[in-house]
Amino acid sequence: MRDGPSRRSRPVEVEAGELFVEEAGDGPAVVLSHGGLTDRHLWDELFASLARDHHAVRYDLRGHGASTTGAVAYRPYEDLAAVLDALGLARADLLGHAQGAGASLDLALTAPERANRLVLVAPVLDGAGPTEPDERARLEALGRRVASAYERGEFARASVELHQVWSVGDGRSGAALPAGAYERLLAMTEADLERPLGESGARAVGPVPPSVGRLRELAAPTLVVVGERDLGFVRATAERISREARTARRVVLDGAAHHLPLERPEELERLVRTFLDAPGRDEGAATGP
Fold first, then answer.
1. CATH number, position 102
2. Is there a domain that residue 158 lies in?
């Protein structure tokens, strides 16, 4: 973030773990949550941009990046709320990718007073997994290959297997992504796979009932962004949110896959800024003096 606002970091304690939180800039608060097998650096480009005129916050999920966790069951949306509390934010705009989008949506439904607006990028929700037989079989086969590579300590190979399906897609190579993006994804995932086994026993659980059955209750204005080449169940989840949540609208990025913050950073930035800067927003407020 050259010549941009200075970054500030702090640990936030959660049950059996600690979250690494980074913030920069001043203005309306926006909190960025990443998805599985990446870390806060997924948001490098958008975080730097938003920090120019927002209070931009990003953090590493449990067991990712610089955050830690014990082998416990935990609720990602409660961790997100803990980040808001630690920064003295009563509410904020919530921007999430994949599981991070799920945590943002979960918080907006369980504690609607905490969310101004939502941006859900390639959303992955509890209870909304793959249903098509071919896709389920493909992902099960991927899981077996990754598990085999993991057990042999071949973390780089496991990372390649994962991202060929999730980030690259059929008929493409890593070269289809912008320069350096594929390598950044592989490095983040390999680092996560190498973490201590105790942390791999952590288990994320969602709210009861799952948010996927409560979409009609969503009150926060919501932008859903998904890639045309993403996995079918992710595209179906994005379509379902935009269909059932009266406050949501969906944008499909032609030719793009799952990791849009790295594959289409400039296009995603334009969409996010247009949405967040629209009139009528309720800006985040501090809980303290």
1. 3.40.50.1820
2. no
Of 14, 20, 24, the C-alpha closest to 34 is 20
In a domain, 38, yes or no: yes
| C-alpha span between 98 and 162 (Å, rounded) | 15
Residue 68: burial class (beta carbons within 10 Å; 0-12, 13-18, 19+): buried
- How many angstroms from the chain centroid is the CA of residue 70? 21
pLDDT digits (tens, 9 = 90+) for 46-98: 999 999 999 999 999 998 999 999 999 999 999 999 999 999 999 999 999 99
Q: Which residues are CB-neighbours of 205 under 8 A, at least 6 positions away?
A: 73, 74, 75, 126
Count, residues in the chain: 289
Q: What is the dihedral of CA 132, 148, 263, 20, to 10 degrees?
A: 110
How far apart CA 281 and CA 264 sit, in angstroms, is 25
DSSP state for residue 5 in the 8-state scheme:
P
> What are the helix and strand counts (H, E) for the chain?
10, 11
Q: Could you report the per-residue pLDDT of 109-136, keeping only the tens digit for each?
A: 999 999 999 999 999 999 999 999 999 9
Signed CA dihedral, 196, 9, 270, 100: sign only: positive
Q: Which range marks the domain in which residue 111 is found?
A: 7-129+199-276
Is position 41 within any domain? yes
Has residue 216 been placed in a domain? yes
In sequence order, what are the residues at sequence separation of 6 or more whose Cβ sits closer than 8 angstroms to the Cβ of residue 110? 77, 207
Does the predicted TM-score (pTM) go above 0.85?
A: yes
Specify the number of domains making up the chain.
Answer: 1
Of 200, 175, 174, 152, residue with least CA distance to 36: 200
**Residues 225 and 253 sit within 8 Å (Cβ to Cβ):** yes
Contact at 8 Å (CB) between 106 and 130? no
Classify 11 as helix, strand or coil.
Answer: strand
